[in-house]
Amino acid sequence: MSDMAVWPAGRRITVRDLQAATDRGERWSMLTSYDALTAGVFEQAGVRALLVGDTSAEMVLGYADTLPVTMDELVSMVAAVVRGTRIALVVADLPFGSYQAGPEVALASAVRHLKEGGAQAVKLEGGWRVVPQVAALVGAGIPVMGHLGLTPQSVNVLGGMRRVQGRGDAGDQLLADALALERAGAFALVLESVPAALGRRVSEALRIPTVGIGAGPGCDAQIMVWQDMAGLTTGRVPRFVQRYADMHARLLDAAGRYAADVAAGRYPDQAHSYA
Ligand code: KIV
To answer: Which end of the chain, N or C, is less packed with Cβ atoms under 10 Å?
Structure first.
């Protein structure tokens, strides 16, 4: 059966399409996206779902961690990604402070992502503590993606971004959390920075798709921060990052040649000027 026959072409992918792909054993991919242009490129490339992540705090807004980004900031990025796409499922992150206080607060935030942003689903971090929030959102008709393992919004409790989570006995707790999120109605689960064996164990235990980021090849789907994937970020990156391009070097070269041409009077020339 062709790709076109199983993935919708003329409408948006839904959470049911993602589940169906997982049920038939097909791996699918997600990327983060924060603007209309990259969203359109990623969708064209066959990336099935886009996450407007709170990593936008670091990747777009220049903060040191994910905590400062606000609902207002995220909603406008969600709306841009939705405007730039026709097919990809758009998942909007619930930022730090927008859901932890309880189901009512979570519902108000999630509703904004769907009503103002146009997202089709939301994501939040945490295990058993957020089960009431997940149940409330799903009960209100909002698909929820969970997020376990390294949960960057807890950077201050973790005492820094200690990479690998879920080693030893902590793996049993993570699996229990994953099952609780599935029971509460989550449609998928991000597993970040956990041992590959735990990623596989959780994936085998759940019916809903697991979306790995540093969780090994046993997950049903994968996600990466697009600037890591495309090599726009520089310096030390986590072990799980594979660079598929060197966007930093390409952009540096283009901007450098542009600046040099302007300085030398080579740009604009006749061909790029109006008569
Ligand atoms: O906010 C984000 O981009 C994320 C991904 C790294 C999974 O949570």
So the answer is: C
